[in-house]
Amino acid sequence: MRWIWLAGGFVLVALGGWWLFTNGAGKPGANVRIAVPLPPLSSTPALLLPAPDPGLVASSPDGLLPIIGKDGRQVWQVYARPFDRTEKRPRLTLVVTGLGLDHALSQAAMDRLPGAVTLAFDPYADDLKNAFNQARSLGHETLLGLPMEPLDYPRQDPGPLTLLASLPESENVARLNKLMGSGSGYVGFVALWGGRFMADKRAPLPILEILRERGLMLVDNRSPAENATAMLAGQMKLPWAAADLTLDSDAEPAAIDQAFAALETQAQRNGAALALAALSPALVDHAASWVGTLDSKGLALAPASALANRQPTSPPTAQ
Questions:
Q1: What is the mean pLDDT of residues 51-73?
Q2: Same domain, 202 and 260
Q3: What pLDDT score was predicted for residue 35?
Q4: Theoretical Cys-Cys bridge with 247: which of 37, 102, 219, 251, CB 3.0 to 4.6 Å?
């Protein structure tokens, strides 16, 4: 059962049916019976409440920073898109990255892609506070990009908030705080670049500790089977997922289709698979069509939070 609003008052709806009762649509105290067609339950978007939750933020000079609630609630779980945790089908996650820079294309992704597609916003996008809430209002779980030092830095420079292996820990923490304070409602971070930073023996650990202590998850941009962070995340109890494949913004339509087919195979083989795909018009077009085929293939489209700590982190044993 659920309540919805119609002109004249609230109504109690029997899900999956056509009937409902109103209170106040007629004369005072009258009950009025009407019939309305309801969409199938499977097509009803998940309701994600506006952020921040007052119990999950703390004030700082950089804005409201995420915290674990006094009651133990964690940001990555509270802000997650609802998902049936008893789902037995292989889980497949699509994270679209780079939202917020091209406003029109970002809006198209929010509108055209189903809510189970996770949207990751660029850390340098304008007005991230409203962007997160707008995406959540349409049912999308959200992530924030975490720029980290690439192997060819400074030839490739991810911007002024990039975490660098050469910086003191305090400076990297200060940059992370600025990122975390840019908005609320995201379940965690998605790694951007990071080849040099994550390979450093010292630099990543305090950052990962902060994410865990603040109830956030990390979506890594490296393959789970080749990822040393997986073992560390497991030891720290940091919610973690990783990209089985990535698509850049220049990917051609044929490459996008091939990548989606490979992701399906990976999900069927391992029970879970995740793709990072950079925002582009072609990606939105193909993803909007492709996700509609997953049910018939026996695959469950899942938000990033539903893949936390579910991917195999070492190559399968040879038979």
A1: 98
A2: yes
A3: 37
A4: 251
